[in-house]
Structure formats: structure tokens, C-alpha cells
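Quick one:
INPUT:
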């Protein structure tokens, strides 16, 4: 057989069903000897086809960037997350105990004439709280024991404060948080817009899959969608670009084809922000021929030779993109209002509480004046 005797037949699909139509149909009726693409090996195809060699890993993924709302939602608890509620409770109790000890210290010093004014219990607790906020104090004990108590408070609060700020800053400057959408069912129930790569095997799987989560995704995002069909079924490059330009947009595609366009159009830090959900379990595609093929052993030896010499690996790395590299050092971190917003909300809440306490003090003072007049 010479090169001139080869005849190429092009098909737009693997198969119409599991073992008929498309490339597999041509192989079964002996129209062709071998296909240029690999197939998934199933129990139905095992009756008619024979595996020659491994071809590639087959992955269908749902890819999307973090929606803005999801990113800000993940930052809501950043300023309370460094400590668990038990640590906050113990720390608050420690400040109250320190305030009580300071109050006792001031009372003892006042009894022995070391200070002219003895602060109240509330003022002593306020001094303890000021130490926790690294604000210092306007009244200090005169005795050595009292000063040692105050030094211990300041030192513990200083250590807690530095630990707290380091954790908050590192979390804000850390890698972009991934979305909380981790499964196909969560994606189907979300309000994200979904489009699918317009290739036949992905289209057939989405439309005909018996899995409940995939069926729910198809009904919610495609059947009940009010968009035009040409906005649902997109070419790979267009879908990848929409994922980059429209955070929250989901594109379902074959990873091998989509990754090539991601490497072409995405910056390194944008690759780090990608979320991926497997549409189906990753499987291996194999090169196969019909069982009664007279060329089976010759082709098998040929494929094994190409794998041994590295020819298959060379072209596999060139044509099949199976992995994306995330370079964190090239990512520019910008802390915006979606990250720092909760801190300002906490500040506003603190000001509101202070004004409320001030109002109570004013009412209490007026009541005391009214009682003194009468």
C-alpha cells in the first residue's frame, strides 16, 4: 500500500448512537480501516471494536470566572474569621478580667493615697479595651504591681493584634477565592448564564444524558432559556472570550480545545481566577479498529513504536492542552470595596453603638439633674 492509495473521509461526528453512524459506523461497515480520532471504550462498542493504544484523556468542563457577587460574599467574614467564636469569647473575658483587676489596683492605690482619683469599674474596663485597640491609657497605676498588670495586658493585646492583622492582610492578598458553586446541580440552580460548545458529542451528551444533575442543567439553562439558540451554542474561541469578558458566564466545552484558547487570550492572573466543574467523569479515549481488521496488529505495533520513541507524546503536547498553569507571582492584587466594605460596615456599626451609649448617658445625666432639683 502506497501513500497515493490513501483516501480520507471526513465526518462531523463520532457516532449517531453508541455503535452506529458517524466514524464508528464507517468502521463497522468496513468503509474505513482506522479513524484519525480516538473513541471512548464502552461495553456496547467492545462487541465490535478492538483497542490499539491510548489516545488522550477526554474531559468536558464547565468553566467560569468568579462572579462579582460571589467574590464579595466570600469576603464578608474576613474580618471576623482569624479567630473562632471561642477565641473571641475568651479574649473578651480576658479584657473584662483585666479591667476588674485594674479597678482593684486603683482602689488599693487610692486607699493608700498613691492616686488622687479612683476610676470607676466601667472606666477601668474602658482602659482594658483601649489596650486591646492599641490606644494606650490616660491613667496608669503608680504601684509596681499595677504597672506589671498593665504591661501584661498591653503585651498580650499587642501579640493578638499583630496576629489578627497579619491573618487579615494575608487573606486579602491571597489567591482569589473560588466560587462556592462546585457541582453541576448547584450550577443548574444558580442564576448564571450558560452556553455550550457547538460540537456534536458535547451537544448530544447535554441533551440526552440520564444523570439528574445534567438533565436539570439542560432544562434550566437551555430549554427554559429565553436567549436565541446562536447565543447558547457557541464556538470554542467565542465562548472562552465571553468567560473572560463577562464574569459569571459559564461555558461548557471540551478541555483540550478550550485550553488552547485560554492560553492564547488569557493573562496569567486571569487563568488563576478560573473555576472549573467537570461535566462528566474524566475518561480515556483510545485508538480502535474493528475486531476483524486485517491491519489490527500492524497498526498496533506502529502505535506502540510511536509511543516508545516519544512521537506520540510530542504531538500530544502540541495539539492536546490538558493542563493550565497558574502563576500567582504575576497576579496584581487589588483590594477594593468588595473586600474592605465589611470593615467599613463594622465601623459604622461601632459609631452607631457609641452614639447610642452617648444618648443613654445624656438621658441619665438629665435624670440625675432633675432628681437633684427636686
Amino acid at each position: 500500500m502506497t501513500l497515493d492509495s490513501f483516501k480520507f473521509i471526513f465526518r462531523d461526528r463520532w457516532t449517531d448512537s453508541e455503535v452506529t453512524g458517524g466514524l464508528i459506523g464507517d468502521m463497522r461497515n468496513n468503509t474505513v480501516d482506522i479513524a484519525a480520532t480516538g473513541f471512548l471504550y464502552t461495553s456496547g462498542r467492545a462487541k465490535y471494536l478492538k483497542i490499539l493504544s491510548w489516545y488522550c484523556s477526554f474531559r468536558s468542563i464547565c468553566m467560569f470566572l468568579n462572579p462579582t457577587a460571589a467574590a464579595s460574599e466570600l469576603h464578608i467574614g474576613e474580618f471576623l474569621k482569624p479567630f473562632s467564636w471561642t477565641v473571641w469569647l475568651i479574649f473578651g473575658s480576658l479584657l473584662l478580667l483585666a479591667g476588674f483587676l485594674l479597678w482593684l489596683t486603683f482602689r488599693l492605690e487610692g486607699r493608700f493615697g498613691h492616686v488622687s482619683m479612683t476610676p470607676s469599674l466601667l472606666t477601668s474596663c474602658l482602659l482594658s479595651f483601649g489596650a486591646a485597640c492599641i490606644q494606650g491609657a490616660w491613667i496608669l497605676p503608680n504601684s509596681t504591681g499595677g504597672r506589671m498588670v498593665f504591661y501584661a495586658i498591653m503585651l498580650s493585646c499587642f501579640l493578638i493584634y499583630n496576629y489578627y492583622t497579619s491573618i487579615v492582610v494575608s487573606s486579602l492578598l491571597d489567591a482569589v477565592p473560588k466560587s462556592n458553586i462546585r457541582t453541576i446541580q448547584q450550577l443548574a440552580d444558580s442564576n448564571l448564564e450558560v452556553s455550550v460548545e457547538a460540537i456534536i458529542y458535547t451537544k448530544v451528551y447535554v441533551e440526552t444524558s440520564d444523570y439528574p444533575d445534567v438533565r436539570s442543567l439542560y432544562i434550566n439553562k437551555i430549554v427554559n432559556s429565553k436567549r436565541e439558540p446562536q447565543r447558547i451554542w457557541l464556538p470554542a474561541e467565542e465562548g472562552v472570550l465571553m468567560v473572560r469578558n463577562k464574569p459569571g458566564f459559564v461555558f461548557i466545552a471540551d478541555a483540550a480545545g478550550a485550553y488552547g484558547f485560554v492560553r492564547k487570550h488569557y493573562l496569567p492572573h486571569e487563568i488563576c481566577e478560573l473555576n472549573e466543574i467537570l461535566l462528566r467523569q474524566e475518561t480515556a479515549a483510545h485508538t480502535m479498529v474493528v475486531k476483524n481488521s486485517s491491519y489490527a496488529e500492524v497498526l498496533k505495533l506502529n502505535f506502540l513504536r510511536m509511543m516508545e520513541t516519544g512521537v506520540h507524546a510530542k504531538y500530544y503536547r502540541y495539539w492536546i492542552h490538558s493542563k493550565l498553569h497558574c502563576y500567582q507571582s504575576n497576579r496584581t492584587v487589588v483590594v477594593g470595596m468588595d473586600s474592605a466594605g465589611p470593615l467599613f460596615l463594622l465601623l459604622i456599626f461601632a459609631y452607631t453603638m457609641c452614639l447610642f451609649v452617648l444618648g443613654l448617658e445624656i438621658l441619665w445625666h438629665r435624670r440625675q439633674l432633675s432628681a437633684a432639683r427636686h
